[in-house]
Amino acid sequence: MDYRKYVILLFIVLCGFQKLKAQDNGFMVADSTSAALSKAGNWQEMINYGHQTLAAGTDFPGLRLRIAFAYFITNNYKEALAEYNRVLQKDAYNQTARYYAYYSANFLNNYLQASYNAGYLDKGTLRKEGVSPFGLLDMGVESGEKFVSSSRRGNGFYTHGGFSNRLGWRLQLEQSVIYYNQDIINRIGFGPRSDRYKLSDDQIEYFAKLSYMLNQNFTLIGSYHYLTTKYNSTIYRSNLWLAGIKYQGTDVDLQGDVNFGDIIKQPITQYNAKLTYYPSGNLNVYTISRLSDKYLKSKDHFIFNQAIGFKIVKNTWLESGVTFGSQEDYLDSDGLYVYNSVDNTKFKFNETAFYQLNIHAQLRLIYTYEQKADAYFPINYNQNSLTLGFLWKF
Q: Which domain holds residue 314?
């Protein structure tokens, strides 16, 4: 009976040896074939072959890196990041994966994710790329005028300046100062001899936003917005906060957050859910969908914003957006923009043109159309705005 045990054991060993040999052969074929496809620059074929090989059960870092680079070189930065991340899950200090993950995130304008990956690069690479854990990321200004079709309102003037900087590889700070002014002209009575009086709506604002990257996919967000509003000889001070979390996925980014605080002595709470979709894995085409539930003056207001951006020619992008719902005291862009003008906006359409002058400088032109409701009389009117912006990336 003992010899049977040895025969069975020998059979198991031989089977295991054959399996290992088959795996060895599979690795060697996949390694040589993927190397040849990469060397020849057959990027789409490399991607297809790589995924077929993975589906067949052969998986190793070299194959993942070649698939990722094929995505990177064909400008699909989202898929490239996903593949580099799979390599980094097993080897957090793989310098090739970190280097290209850094640039993939940069090309998606996700500077915090880029910084997170830069934190794992060796000192020589950091010096070569001129990257440090502290320093300015960008600085910009924008200014515009709002042209009003109502004789009861003067044109509005808006200006905004701000900058963002690293406070560490995982921490980023954005700060802005904003000024807004508009004359409000009303009547006492309705007859031809009724008295007219003019009020000035002046507002000065400060905004700060902190973003902390937990890992390659999740980011914590917090912001604070302070407003000083002078209206009808009265000064109002408002404080608004935001807390949220963002998930960076392969094809989509998801964000959930809540705004809360007080605005012109009114408590406000606004819950937001945002989805950003990259169908081609880059900024050549993208969509942003945002749904908000705003609780103000004991009522819920649902607001929906939909935007689509696309590259039209070299260095030029357009982004079109519409916003539906009552936008009284609506909070947008992680609490940066506060729509608390005297009159409520019921519908908004905006068109933004981006032109990249060079690797550092970007021009921005924004046109906005709004349907407004007079706060004191049952009158609707239109408002058209033009804003010019300039951004410098360090």
A: 134-393
